[in-house]
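so my prof wants the structure for this chain in the tokens format not the other one, which i didnt know existed until like an hour ago. anyway here's the sequence
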Amino acid sequence: MQTHIVPVGFDYDRLIAPLVREQMDVDRVILLEGAVGSEANVEYSRRLSEKLEQDYRNLLGAETERVVVADVYDYDAAFEQAFELINAELDRAGIGDETNAGGDTGGGNGEVWVNISAMPRTVSFAFATAAHSIMVEREDDRRRIHTYYTVPEKYLETELAEELRRARDLLVDLLEDAENAGEERPGVRTDLDRVRDRLDAIDDLLAEFDERGTTIGAKEIDGSHVVELPVASFSNVKPFEEVILFTLGEHGEFESVSELAGQLARELGEEYTDSFRSKVIYNVDRLGPGGKGYIEQEERGKSYRTRLSRIGELWVRAHSGRRDADFDV
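here's what i got, hopefully its the right format
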């Protein structure tokens, strides 16, 4: 089974044309719709989703499903949603397959493709990072996960601006002709006032476009104008490392690694010995900035305040369903 996960923004061609032109097999498509933004933007995206849903079925014979992304600017929530969705689709696509094409035992032959061409960058990067994280965790399934982008043949923004300039020039000519003719027929003055209003609006819009490009301003999200996009680790997480990450996720921060080791010993029913403490220090180092990057530490005298990094927080959030699992540590 070939499954495509497609975040829908304001594009149509880039979300379906490559699949048609490349004659790719498409069995199932999941269309992601944003639910945050201006009413006009949300409605426009929804209409595109409806058109894509129909065309995926009619042109490619694909089963389609539409899923809502509650907040397209919430990177953490998008990452968690992507992590769950991609894993679920890998499992669905692999049903009935027992071996990979090369004969190795794995999750099956079905593939999951993630199109990151549209939607706000927060969603696109979240899905790309989640896909990469899953490639690391599901080593046997790496070849079944694909993240792709399609380059547009042309952008319409500049063409729209040029057409708007031509329309402005036409309105200016019509206004001048009418004023010079001195026509005083009933209703003409009202029409000329409407033309002037339209000209003012066009002038303002073109001035903003020429000065700022296709977007205006910088929106504040969760108290900041910067949405950090953390990078996934290139190494899988071992069972005891998982326990450490979940413990940090539950308690937030520890003043020292020794304090963290004491908490782990209590939770695991282990005796707190120098050997156990050394084991914790070793694994924290592996998870730290010089290793997998899931933990960050701040030096405080002879101790290191220890907490999850941003990508560590995302890992815990995405794996929360495994918190109560039994680990062979």
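also thought this was worth mentioning. Residues 156-212 form one domain.
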